[in-house]
Write a structure and sequence with these properties.
two-stranded antiparallel ribbon; alpha/beta; disordered N terminus; 11-stranded mixed β-sheet
Length: about 575
């Protein structure tokens, strides 16, 4: 089901139904424009915020039906732009994003637009309170022009045997990648899913397609880094707690975090600072963990010479080359030849820029041959992991969803359309004919089987093992031993490791590789090349250092290529 009002909102503006103040001739184009460019144009009077919004709405009206980037477009965006233009004319500048249109994921509360998580059960839900990050964006002067498409409930709905494709939801359907927005033609996959993965559960579609300047995603395990990789964006997956989660539909507070997605490291850094609170949020205790820089300004860390002398580790085993797993006859992981070519080129760039490459810098828990100490044998229960092997997986997601989702529903009060995870599952079953659960709801079922009292001991033990294998005996150990500034991962492949302890990662666009899934596309089908970025991962609160490395790498390469014209 698509939102017909998306186009109608835009056309109202374009046809002049809204009263428009006189503006100077337009000498600015939003396509591929960065936030600093927009700020300079606004400051000089070359463009108004109204004009920025009008151009973006025009693009949404023209191309939304092809890409499915938005679940909701703000019908008051032009009014908000006019108000911010008046404030600018009066010399009042709210903050770093004054008059800049951005989008936020549709699991982030707004009180002037619905927040649905892409679920039919929440269609039209307007929460009774705003997310803290929404308030921070408004205080910084941002215009929230839209709520982005997403994988339904952050991809915690349907796992095996029929996993939900990335960026699909029952409310808006399937999102499509601007780098190849066709449907998958393969037998068994021809159900509307994209020929090129979009990633999930956040969406970078609209930022890549120039529907807005940048957007805010959320990640529990890969849901910023994965879509940023596939839509050739910079994504910052922060330390858990760096940005408040209050007012964000949860999976588990142990790993959930919002974060920015943008075309450049500079834009991502600007948005990152605007999202972070000046002081800890009393509604999210984790926000006391990492103190922000002065003025929440991350741009001083953006140095073109930032790679000189930096020590960067290459975790070869599993992430680059196949690794032996205790008790298994076959090795796991490793890159194909094209992916390896991209990463070896990236490593060469780092060396040329003065970085010290520590290779290999293997993750201890990845190469350990004791089953109890091997991270690769420690999955996530309910997320495609064989439930029959439940003792070899963590129930943190399942437990957290039951605990935190029900708590979120309670916070909605009378606005909540269902009162519990159980009621949501029952509602979905009753509305299957309307498309509520096209791919089933196996992960919701697994979460609802959790007993928060009975299973608490197992949850606490699993959470401790997550931290031990991913952090203490994982990232922490190798970084301390080799005195590393960061670990270099291919694309988003390190996301699951860093997500367990809530550590930060920044992904930067870099190369492309053939889009060659298995089973292969039909003979004669010419798939377009797929983006393949590089990621810098560090320990808690290391975002300033990671931004320095990511910016220096970006400036030395500048490999992001815009998608072809629609």
């Amino acid at each position: 089901m698509r939102r017909n009002f998306l186009a109608s909102v835009c056309l109202v503006a374009l046809l002049g139904a809204c009263e428009q103040p006189a503006v100077p001739p337009v000498s600015f184009n939003v396509v591929e424009a960065g936030i600093l460019e927009m700020r300079a144009a606004l400051d000089s009077g070359r463009v108004t915020s109204r004009e920025l919004v009008r151009q973006y709405l025009t693009r949404i009206a023209t191309y939304e039906d092809r890409f499915h980037a938005a679940l909701y477009v703000n019908p008051r965006a032009l009014e908000e732009a006019d108000a911010l233009d008046r404030e600018r004319a009066e010399g009042r500048i709210r903050g770093v994003l004054h008059g800049i249109p951005v989008a936020i994921k549709d699991n982030i509360h707004t009180t002037d637009m619905p927040t649905t998580g892409g679920a039919l059960a929440f269609d039209g839900l307007v929460p009774p309170y705003e997310a803290t990050l929404t308030k921070n964006l408004r205080e910084a002067g941002a215009i929230i022009i839209a709520k982005t498409h997403m994988t339904e409930l952050a991809n915690w709905v349907a796992g095996q045997p029929t996993p939900m494709p990335g960026n699909y939801n029952g409310l808006g359907g399937q999102g499509y990648n601007p780098y190849d927005p066709r449907r998958d033609p393969r037998v068994g996959f021809f159900d509307g899913r994209p020929v090129m993965i979009v990633g999930g559960s956040s969406s970078g579609i609209g930022t890549t397609a120039n529907f807005w300047a940048a957007n805010v995603g959320t990640e529990t395990s890969g849901s910023i880094l994965n879509p940023a990789n596939w839509t050739m964006l910079v994504g910052i997956k922060p330390t858990v707690g760096r940005i408040s989660r209050y007012g964000v539909i949860p999976i588990t507070a142990d790993q959930d975090t919002p974060g920015p997605m943008a075309k450049t490291v500079t834009d991502a850094a600007i948005l990152f600072g605007a999202l972070e609170g000046a002081a800890p949020d009393p509604n999210d205790p984790a926000t006391a963990k990492c103190p922000p820089p002065p003025g929440r300004d991350y741009t001083p860390f953006l140095r073109a010479d930032g790679l000189m002398g930096a020590r960067i580790g290459v975790p070869r085993a599993f992430y680059y080359e196949p690794a032996s797993v205790p008790g298994e006859p076959l090795q796991r992981g490793g890159l194909n030849s094209e992916q390896m070519r991209v990463m070896e080129e990236a490593i060469a760039v780092l060396k040329a820029q003065g970085a010290v490459i520590v290779d290999p810098a293997d993750i201890p828990s990845v190469v350990d041959q004791e089953k109890e100490n091997n991270f690769l044998l420690w999955g996530i229960c309910g997320a495609g992991f064989d439930v029959a092997l439940a003792e070899n997986c963590s129930i943190v997601f399942e437990y957290g969803m039951k605990r935190d989702f029900n708590s979120w529903l309670d916070s909605l009060g009378n606005a909540a359309p269902v009162k519990s995870l159980t009621e949501l599952r029952e509602w979905n079953l009753a509305h299957q004919n309307a498309g509520s659960i096209k791919y089933g709801q196996s992960t919701l079922d697994h979460s609802d089987e959790i007993d928060l009292t009975r299973d608490r001991g197992r949850y606490e033990a699993d959470r401790a093992k997550d931290i031990r294998l991913a952090a203490t005996y994982g990232i922490d150990e190798v970084m301390a031993r080799e005195k590393l500034d960061a670990l270099l991962f291919p694309a988003q492949l390190g996301a699951a490791l860093a997500a367990r302890p809530g550590y930060p990662t920044i992904i930067v666009p870099f190369g492309t590789v053939p889009n060659a899934p298995l089973p292969p596309f039909p003979e004669g089908f010419a798939a377009k090349p797929a983006p393949f970025g590089v990621s810098f991962t560090g320990m808690a609160c290391s975002e300033p250092r990671l931004l320095t490395l990511a910016y220096a790498f970006e400036q030395a390469t500048k490999r992001r290529v815009p998608p072809p014209a629609p």
